[in-house]
Recover the amino acids of this structure.
C-alpha cells in the first residue's frame, strides 16, 4: 500500500511516499520559496527520480491544518486535483498530530507541537503515546503552558518535548513557564515533514479499511467515486477542505459587530491588485 | 510529464477544460475549438459576500477550495465527457485575488500533471475579451474591445487573437467599482451595478449634469474619481439643505456620465485605428445603458457593436477555455512552475512559447 502525502501548511513544502512501514521517497524544502512554485515541481521530480508511478499510489494524505491559510489551500487544491484526476481517496491528517506522531511512539515525553499563529498565539496540541492529551487549538502560549502544567501535576519525571516554528518565537516563555524538563526537538525533527503526514495517513487509512472490511486493492479497483463508506478522515476529494482553526477576520468582525464597510475595503484592494488578507501572509 | 507536442495540428478538434477562480465565482467549463461551449458551470458566492458589503478575499479563497472539485466534475458531466476527452487544461493565472487564484492554479497544475495533459495559464482580461468569440462565432480580429468590470476598466485594440495593445485604462477607480460605491451611497446595496442599472431606468439621465473626467494628453484613459466625488457631494448638499433627491434621477445621471466616458473613448479609438468592429466585455458590459449608447454611437458611424450574452459577461470559465484555445494554437504551454500573478498586465502573458 503506497500513500502519497502533501505538506505545505507553513514554511516547509514537502511531499513523500510511504509504502507500508517504509519511507520510499521524500522531498522537503524549507527556504522561504513560494509553495505554488515548489510543491508540484518537487512532486514531479520525486516521482521521476524515485521511479514510482502515480498510478501505483493507493491514497493521498494531505496535511489539513492548522497553518498558513494560503499554504493550506495550495496543498489542499494540489491534493484535490491529484485525487480527482486519479480517482483516489483523500486522507485528512492533522498537521499538529502528524508532527508529533512518530516522536510520541518512541519516547514517553509529552510531545508539544507549536506553530506560530502570531498575536502571541500558537496553533498547538499535546500528544503522548500516539494519543491526544490536549486537543488542537489556536490559543495563547501562556494558556497552553498552563494547561500542560495542570495536566501533569503528579508526575515528577515528566518532560515536555517541543517542536514547530512557534519554538524560536516563544522558547524563553516555554522554558520559564513549565516546571520539569523541557526539550526542543533537533533539526530534521522540528518542522513539518510530508513523511510524518504519510505515516499517520497510512495508519488512519489502514484503520478505515479494517473498519469497513475493505482492502487497499479493492478500493483501488473500485475507485474513490464508487466508495460510499467514506468518513471525516478518509474521504472523496470533493468533500475535503482545510482545517483553519480560525475564522477569517471579516467573519469575526461580522460576528462581534465591528465590521466596518468591508466592501469598500476589499474592493479597493481588488482595484490595486495588492491583496493580502489581514494576518495570513502568502506562504 | 506534460505532453507539449500533442495536438499541434491546427486543424484538429481541441476540447479544453477551463478553470476560473480569480474573484468570487468558482467556475469550470468545457469548450471546443474556442467557440463552442459544451458546459459552463459557475458557483457564485455572491450571497455570502453580500453580508460583508463586498468580496472578502479570505472567504472567497476558502469557498473556492471547498467547491472546486464539485464544479469541475459537474462541468465534465454536463459536457457528457470524462478527463480522457479533454485535450488541454486551462486556468486563470491573473490578475485577481492572489489567494483565490492560487486555488485554481494549484488544482489545474495537479490535474494537468496527473492526467498528462498540456496546461495553459490564461490572462483573466484576455478571457473576458474572448467571451465575444463564444457569442459571435464569426468575430475575428482586428477590433477594439472595452473591458469593464468591478476591478477593471481597459480599452484594448485587438490586432490579433493574441496581439493586444492596451491603449487606455482607468487612472483611479474601475467603472464597476464606481457603480458599487455610488449604489452604496444611495442605499441600494451590493452588488451595485445591476441594482443601479435597474434604478436608473426610471430616472432622467440629464436631470443632473455631472462632470465627465478627461485625462490630459491621454485620449483613451479614464478617470472616475471626480465624478464619484461630485455624486457624493450632490447627495451631501441635498441632505444639508434638507432636500429630497430622486434616487432614479441621480442614478440615471451618474450612469449616463460613466457610460458617456466609456463610449466616447471606445468609439474614438476605433475611428482613429480605422477598425469597424467594437466589442464590450466584462461584468459592466451587461449594463443596459452602456449597450444602448454603444450601439447608437456605432450605428451612426457604420460600425458593428458586439457584446457577450449576459452569462459570459460576468466571470466564467468558458471564456478562459476560449482564450486558452488561441494561446494553445500559438504554442503557449505552462508547466508545474506556473504561479498566480495577481498584478498581471494585459499583453504580458508571461507564458513561454515553444
Amino acid at each position: 500500500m503506497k500513500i502519497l502525502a502533501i505538506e505545505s501548511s507553513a514554511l516547509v513544502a514537502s511531499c513523500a511516499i510511504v509504502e507500508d512501514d517504509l519511507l520510499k521517497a521524500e522531498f522537503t524544502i524549507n527556504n522561504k520559496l513560494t509553495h505554488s512554485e515548489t510543491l508540484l515541481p518537487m512532486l514531479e521530480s520525486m516521482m521521476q527520480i524515485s521511479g514510482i508511478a502515480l498510478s501505483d499510489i493507493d491514497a493521498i494524505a494531505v496535511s489539513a491544518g492548522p497553518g498558513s491559510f494560503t499554504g493550506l489551500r495550495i496543498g489542499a487544491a494540489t491534493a484535490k486535483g491529484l485525487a480527482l484526476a486519479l480517482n483516489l481517496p483523500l486522507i485528512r491528517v492533522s498537521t499538529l498530530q502528524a508532527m508529533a506522531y512518530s516522536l510520541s511512539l518512541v519516547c514517553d515525553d509529552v510531545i508539544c507541537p507549536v506553530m506560530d499563529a502570531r498575536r502571541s498565539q500558537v496553533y498547538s496540541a499535546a500528544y503522548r503515546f500516539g494519543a491526544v492529551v490536549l486537543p488542537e487549538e489556536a490559543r495563547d502560549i501562556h494558556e497552553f503552558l498552563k494547561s500542560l502544567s495542570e495536566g501533569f501535576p503528579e508526575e515528577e519525571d515528566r518532560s515536555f518535548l517541543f517542536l514547530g516554528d512557534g519554538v524560536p518565537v516563544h522558547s524563553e516563555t516555554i522554558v520559564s513557564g513549565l516546571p520539569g524538563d523541557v526539550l526542543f526537538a533537533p533539526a530534521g525533527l522540528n518542522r513539518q515533514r510530508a513523511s510524518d503526514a504519510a505515516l499517520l495517513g497510512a495508519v488512519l487509512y489502514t484503520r478505515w479499511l479494517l473498519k469497513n472490511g475493505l482492502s487497499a486493492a479493492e478500493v483501488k479497483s473500485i475507485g474513490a467515486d464508487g466508495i460510499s463508506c467514506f468518513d471525516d478522515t478518509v474521504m472523496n476529494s470533493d468533500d475535503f477542505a482545510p482545517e483553519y482553526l480560525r475564522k477569517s477576520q471579516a467573519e469575526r468582525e461580522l460576528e462581534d459587530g465591528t465590521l466596518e464597510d468591508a466592501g469598500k475595503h476589499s474592493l479597493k484592494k481588488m482595484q490595486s491588485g495588492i491583496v493580502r488578507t489581514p494576518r495570513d501572509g502568502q506562504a | 510529464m506534460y505532453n507539449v507536442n500533442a495536438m499541434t495540428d491546427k486543424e484538429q478538434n481541441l476540447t479544453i477544460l477551463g478553470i476560473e477562480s480569480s474573484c468570487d465565482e468558482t467556475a469550470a467549463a468545457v469548450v471546443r475549438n474556442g467557440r463552442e461551449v459544451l458546459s459552463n458551470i459557475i458557483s457564485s458566492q455572491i450571497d455570502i459576500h453580500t453580508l460583508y458589503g463586498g468580496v472578502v478575499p479570505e472567504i472567497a479563497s476558502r469557498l473556492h477550495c471547498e467547491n472546486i472539485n464539485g464544479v469541475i466534475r459537474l462541468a465534465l458531466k454536463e459536457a457528457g465527457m470524462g478527463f480522457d476527452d479533454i485535450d488541454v487544461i486551462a486556468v486563470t493565472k491573473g490578475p485577481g485575488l492572489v489567494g483565490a487564484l492560487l486555488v485554481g492554479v494549484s488544482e489545474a497544475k495537479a490535474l494537468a500533471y496527473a492526467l498528462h495533459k498540456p496546461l495553459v495559464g490564461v490572462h483573466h482580461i484576455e478571457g473576458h475579451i474572448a467571451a465575444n468569440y463564444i457569442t459571435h462565432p464569426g468575430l475575428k480580429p482586428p477590433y477594439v474591445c472595452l473591458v469593464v468590470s468591478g476591478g477593471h476598466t481597459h480599452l484594448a485594440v485587438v490586432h490579433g487573437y493574441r496581439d493586444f495593445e492596451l491603449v487606455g485604462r482607468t487612472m483611479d477607480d474601475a467603472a464597476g467599482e464606481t457603480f458599487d460605491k455610488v449604489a452604496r451611497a444611495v442605499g441600494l446595496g451590493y452588488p451595485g451595478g445591476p441594482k443601479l442599472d435597474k434604478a436608473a431606468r426610471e430616472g432622467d439621465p440629464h436631470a443632473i449634469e455631472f462632470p465627465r473626467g478627461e485625462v490630459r494628453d491621454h485620449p483613451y484613459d479614464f478617470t472616475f474619481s471626480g465624478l464619484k466625488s461630485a455624486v457624493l457631494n450632490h447627495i451631501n448638499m441635498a441632505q444639508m439643505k434638507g432636500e429630497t433627491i430622486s434616487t432614479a434621477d441621480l442614478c440615471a445621471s451618474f450612469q449616463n456620465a460613466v457610460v458617456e466616458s466609456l463610449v466616447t473613448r471606445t468609439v474614438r479609438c476605433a475611428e482613429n485605428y480605422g477598425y469597424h468592429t467594437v466589442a464590450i466585455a466584462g461584468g459592466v458590459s451587461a449594463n443596459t445603458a452602456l449597450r444602448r449608447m454603444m450601439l447608437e454611437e456605432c450605428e451612426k458611424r457604420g460600425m458593428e457593436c458586439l457584446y457577450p450574452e449576459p452569462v459570459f459577461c460576468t466571470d466564467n470559465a468558458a471564456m478562459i477555455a476560449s482564450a486558452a484555445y488561441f494561446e494553445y494554437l500559438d504554442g503557449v504551454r505552462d508547466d508545474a512552475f506556473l504561479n498566480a500573478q495577481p498584478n498581471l498586465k494585459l499583453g504580458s502573458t508571461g507564458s513561454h512559447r515553444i
